[in-house]
Amino acid sequence: MTVKNAMTADFLRSAYGGESMANMRYLIWADVADQEGMPNIGRLFRAIAHAEYAHADNHLRALKEEKGDFTVAAGAVFGVGNTVENLQGGIDGELHEIEQMYPVYLETAKFQNEKDAQRAFHYALEAEKIHATLFKEAQDVAREGKDIDLSAIYVCEVCGHTTTDSLPDKCPICGASEKMYKEF
Q: What pLDDT digit, counting tens, does each position of 91-117 carry?
């Protein structure tokens, strides 16, 4: 096991559980948006679900051979509502991670000199900031009963960086090349 400190390991397990649940929640909410005639919001949910998968993968890899029960991150929203409500759930979940969860996890990993956990938490924190903004922008449009206008969504498969602009040559979070992005 690479992680030596119990507190950092607990935080990695908690973050893994939270990101895994966010991944599934966003996939379900994508189907709701599709059913409500908002396929671009559906694509946005799917793209960010893929980013959450990258976060969960990074947390699990930082744990390496860790075995045992995974706990659930606080602040998770479990219900399924309409697209505007589901986007609010996405916003709330991302803000919880940005404002409460990842800052504490990251500082603990730094204090305990856990490099793999630091990297995983940093990647997730920076990507979640973008996700919250994207969900808010989509919600503003969905409140009017409309879908967002998107030509493409790109997700870095290393860190979860998500952009609806042009494909970057290099990821601004982790430095990965454009070849590491998946298009949605």
A: 999 999 999 999 999 999 999 999 999
What secondary structure letter does DSSP report for 159? Answer: T
Rounded mean pLDDT, 69-76: 40
Q: Quickly tell me which residue has 């379900």 as its tokens.
A: 28
pLDDT recorded at residue 4: 85
Residue listed under structure tokens 């119990």: 6
Of the CA atoms within 13 Å of residue 116, those in its CB half-sphere come to 17
Q: What angle do CA 138, 101, 183 make, to 5 degrees?
A: 40
CATH of 6-147, one of 3.90.1150.10, 1.20.1260.10, 3.30.70.260, 3.30.450.20: 1.20.1260.10
Q: Tell me the two tokens of residue 131.
A: 């996700």
Long-range contacts of 111-116 (CB under 8 A, 24+ apart): 112/4, 112/5, 112/7, 112/8, 114/2, 114/3, 114/4, 114/5, 114/8, 114/62, 116/2, 116/3, 116/61, 116/62
- Could you give the C-alpha distances from 156 to 47, 51, 130, 168, in angstroms and in order? 10, 7, 12, 10
